Amino acid sequence: AYNNNDKPEEAIKVFKAIDTEHRDAVWHYRCAYSHGSIASTNHEAYTSENMQQMLALVDNGVRLATKEDRNCS
Fold first, then answer.
1. pTM value?
2. CA–CA dist 63, 32 (Å, integer)
3. Which of 17, 35, 39, 70 has a CB 3.0–4.6 Å from the CB of 44, allowing a cystine?
4. So what's the pLDDT on residue 67?
5. What's the Rg (C-alpha) of the chain?
6. Which pLDDT score is estimated for 48?
7. What total of structural domains would you count in the chain?
8. 33 lies in which domain range?
9. Handedness of CA 20, 23, 21, 61 (dihedral sign)
10. HEC readout, the chain
11. CA 1, CA 54: separation in Å to the nearest integer?
């Protein structure tokens, strides 16, 4: 809900409170969205911490989604 109400910092706090064993691909995508939202709002460069965090989260999300997809087959 925080992401939908322009409160990405609060969303990140909630995401970080989730235990690591429950962090699936969707968790990574949503957390990445929060970091990307902050970076976009602040007109940050691709080298900024928020942008780098966003890219890493998307990358991990793709890896997890691919792994989850293979496990379902």
1. 0.89
2. 14
3. 39
4. 86
5. 13
6. 97
7. 1
8. 3-72
9. negative
10. CCHHHCCHHHHHHHHHCCCHHHCCHHHHHHHHHHHHHHHHHCCCCCCCHHHHHHHHHHHHHHHHHHHHHHHHC
11. 19
Structure tokens, 33:
């969205």
Placement of tokens 């792994």 in the chain: 67
Distance CA 51, CA 17 (A): 21
Model confidence pLDDT, tens digit, residues 10-55: 999 999 999 999 999 999 999 999 999 999 999 999 999 999 999 9
Give pLDDT, residue 73: 61
Look up residue 28 and give its two tokens: 């990574």
Q: Which residue's entry shows tokens 């995508």?
A: 29
Question: Amino acid identity of 40?
Answer: S
